[in-house]
Amino acid sequence: MKALSEIVKDQIGSFMDAKDLDIKTLAAKIGVTESKLRNEMNTVGEVGYTVLESLLEKYPELSTEWLFRGEGEMFKLKQEEKSNRTELECLQVMSKHLENISKSLSVIANKRNRN
After folding, report:
1. Comparing C-alpha atoms, which of 115, 106, 51 is closest to residue 11?
2. Closest-CA residue to 35 (of 43, 24, 45)
3. Rounded to whole angstroms, how far apart are CA atoms 65 and 61?
4. Is residue 31 within 8 Å of 90, Cβ to Cβ?
5. Coil, helix or strand for 58?
6. Which value, in Å, is the radius of gyration of the alpha carbons in the chain?
7. How confident is the model over 16-71, as pLDDT tens digits?
8. What is the DSSP string of 77-114?
9. What is the pTM of this model?
10. Angle 34-39-42 from CA coordinates, rounded to 5°
11. Which of 35, 46, 71, 99 could connect to 5 by a Cys-Cys bridge, CB 3.0–4.6 Å?
């Protein structure tokens, strides 16, 4: 099992890839020096609190669950996206129910036609 520090470093690397950022650019965006970020990413130790706090403040859409545990999606869903996803799921369930009702009605109609 990977240590938490290694998971976090891997996740930051994946985040940088997704955002097309290099260490120099990310460091500038989160307000730390390039050498600080590079050292924390490349040494055996942990990424420090300052870097993590700055990263999460600059990118509030970044999921902490994903960053620290490697679970879930990289980016948080906005409330509207969550709502849309829920509505879509409801529509899919309703569509399935209507399909089943339609099949049942067809079976009943076929039985009546035979009699």
Report:
1. 51
2. 24
3. 12
4. no
5. helix
6. 25
7. 999 999 999 999 999 999 999 999 999 877 899 999 999 999 999 999 999 998 88
8. PPHHHHHHHHHHHHHHHHHHHHHHHHHHHHHHHHHHHH
9. 0.65
10. 120
11. 46
